[in-house]
Amino acid sequence: MNKKPSFKRSLVIGFTVVIAILVLAYGFQVTQVNFEETRSETRLTQLSRIIRALAHPDILEYELDEVFVEAPVYLPCPEIDPSLPETDTRGPYITLEPYCADAGEPIVVSGSNFLPNSRGPINFIPPSGASLQLGGFEVDSDGNFKEEVELPNRQPVADAQTIRVIGRTNVGAPHLSPVAKATWNKIIETVFLALLATVFGTMIAIPLSFLSARNLMSDVKSPVTSVALTLTGWPIGVALGLQAVRLVAQISEPLAANMFLTVAGLVISPVLAYFIARWAIPPEELTKPPTATRIIRIIALILAALLFILATLLLAHLMYVAGNALDKALGPFGFIGYFIAQAGEILRIITPGFAALAGAAVVGGALGNLGMVLTDRIPYSSLRYMNIIFSAVAGAIIFAVIGAGINWLYQINDPIKILWIPMVVGALVGGVLSLRYGPKDLVPIGSVIYMIMRTILNAVRSIEPLIYVIVFVVWVGIGPFAGALALALHTIAALAKLYSEQVESISSGPLEAVTATGANRLQTIIYAVVPQIIPPYISFTMYRWDINVRMSTIIGFAGGGGIGFLLQQNIRLLDYRAAAVQMLAIAIVVATMDYTSALIRERFV
Amino acid sequence: MLEVKNLTKIYEGGVLALDDVSFNIEAGEFLAVIGLSGSGKSTLLRCINRLVEPTSGQVLWSGTDITSANQSELRLIRRKIGMVFQHFNLVTRSPVITNVLAGRLGYVNPAMSLFNRFPQHDIDAALSQLERVGITDQAYKRADELSGGQQQRVGIARAMVQEPEIILADEPVASLDPVLAHTIMQYLEKINQEEGVTVLCSLHFLDLVHRYADRAIALNEGKLMFDGSPKDIDDEKFKEIYGKEAERVG
């Protein structure tokens, strides 16, 4: 490279610097940088007031013993000397020197017989009765004090007005203020909100991370017909899965109505499912079994799956009923019952989802295998036509599903526009795409899935949880649950990306070795990938919990529960001492999290 | 039993790793592959069990064409081909026994193996393979606690638990010291002679080739330069295989 300084080079550098300064200068205007404001007298006073309030978090408070002492004051001085009442010197009393003055002039307030070390405000009470604080006082150990205060700028009044001092003494031991108690409740809520979000997020992010790891997906390739048939199989499988759950739910309803039948069904069906599965899946197979056996096995496995769904639905029902009963019976430990009931509810919600996924996987996988067999068996010359036909069917089905989605969003309800046109377009797209590959070429379907996954994850990740929470608040109402769901969604996207990058950086040797033994893809992942990624996964999960705790402190700003709600409320009410308590709590929790997560990471990694 | 016909591999980016290589392996043979680093030895071994997809040519395995096998057929073929690697390629964070049991993955039911469940006779087989290489006492240690020589023995046990008909050994002793190298080579020799397992082994050192191999083939820049008895590698052949500048060591 030519390192000699040349005129052209210097010109380019100079030009770049000028451009950089111009950009920065424009930035000053856009962000309304105004350093004059920082020196303004009133702003500085306000700032110091807030910072001082923040330095006095409202954590502890005492029972207060208060004594009110008053003395008349004239503003301005009357023309005739008023007859001042005699000062009662038996209890605490104050004297004013002088007893009258013009607005803005100082007077000296002296007090005696106060409780030693008590303190309080010196207030001016005009005829309206509204109290105006002029200053404060602190009593010395003898019970006396002397403070100079300025009379306020008020309209002159002929009659006497009042100076009132309030002597306050702390009584008994300090105790937590209501603000501190509320903060404690909310910070607990915050930590658990973050915990739940992390757990939900991690559980979903782990499988997604394998789908979005380039090194695992780039080898996944299939013949055209196999891909097309798999794509066709997915929607069919989803529909079958959902239908199966609906069917089983109808069977389970009469069982669920009777507690004895519920328990009996819950015991019998999984045992039956287990033994059927054990029979249908032999531990080891050296030769391919005959077709009849395989068909019987498939039927048995479908039966086992249905029994398994039945068991799941019954379990969900039982958990819901038992949990609610326990919630009432357990008293302070009712939360365990509540948890069981809600876990039953989760089970009930996710069962159709899992059944749909499993159906899609089974039907898609079976049709994919059929596609491979067809590609092997069909003569080469007609292979191309088969590829075109199956791809067209797959394209039509996918576009029909997309059309249904669009219809749900925009409510077009016109079968020509949302069904027939998409199907024709999809068939054309599918057919044309299949022509891009030779009859026996392999489609890099894994790379396509990888790209789609990455795009979705990046899109989901780029939106802040604070925005998701707005959607979830509409769905599940204001509160920590909405916050947990919003954080979980963001956690899924962020962790899946981080995890998948860990998968991409594993050493490929063991992967190669396990593949060479004849292991299938899933086995390879379990035996060669998983052991390598456990330490970074733990590390990232801890880190994410850390982030979630910090995020959950502000998720309340948008109605997502947690401490953010209190913090925002107190800042709006200008109650900075209360806000200080919440900030302190956040700081303590975040610091503790930081420390413990470092500790756990050290232990595992 | 294994016929390699006109095998060619061109990597993405145009690197020609194998150039029209053809040779046969007889059942029970100990065949050495020699050549410089980068001459295509590893690619050749990996094309046989299709860890690397060949660009053209055929590999025939007792008559079946490995190169045109589909995924499920390939799995059945791979489980009969054991492989031993230069860098052992163990899952270092897993116990030794799990690493050996990984050799049974092609046989066991996939669903059960996902939960690390293996039939008892597989576990017994894994332990007896560890016994053969003399490290039964290390079975439940983590693989990365073992020394290099012990790790390669685990690698051999993993290959042997597959009940293979052939073992592909990719420079199995290149990362070991000379003493350990002989130990490992003796295990391979024993497997070859006592169990009748065919061994296809790539090697750096000619003295190892002379001592252990029945036959040798040599690659230079992807081309097959030599196919015959190790004894026939004279100085002229040597220069052809390793280049004019090369000098014999060992």
Concise summary:
Chain A is an alpha+beta fold and 605 residues long. Chain A has helices spanning 7-30, 41-55, 178-211, 214-217, 224-257, 259-280, 291-329, 334-377, 380-410, 415-435, 445-462, 465-476, 480-504, 508-516, 521-555, 563-572, 576-604; strands at 60-75, 93-97, 106-112, 119-125, 132-138, 145-150, 157-176, 222-223, 442-443.
Helix and strand topology:
The complex is a heterodimer of chains A (605) and B (250).
Chain A: H1 7-30, H2 41-55, E1 60-75, E2 93-97, E3 106-112, E4 119-125, E5 132-138, E6 145-150, E7 157-176, H3 178-211, H4 214-217, E8 222-223, H5 224-257, H6 259-280, H7 291-329, H8 334-377, H9 380-410, H10 415-435, E9 442-443, H11 445-462, H12 465-476, H13 480-504, H14 508-516, H15 521-555, H16 563-572, H17 576-604
Antiparallel strand pairs in A: 1-7, 2-3, 3-6, 4-5, 4-7, 8-9
Chain B: E1 2-10, E2 16-25, E3 30-34, H1 41-48, E4 56-61, E5 64-65, H2 71-78, E6 81-84, H3 96-101, H4 110-113, H5 120-132, H6 148-160, E7 166-170, H7 178-194, E8 198-202, H8 206-212, E9 215-220, E10 223-228, H9 235-242
Parallel strand pairs in B: 3-8, 3-9, 6-7, 7-8
Antiparallel strand pairs in B: 1-2, 1-4, 4-5, 9-10
Helix pairs in contact in B: 5-6, 6-7
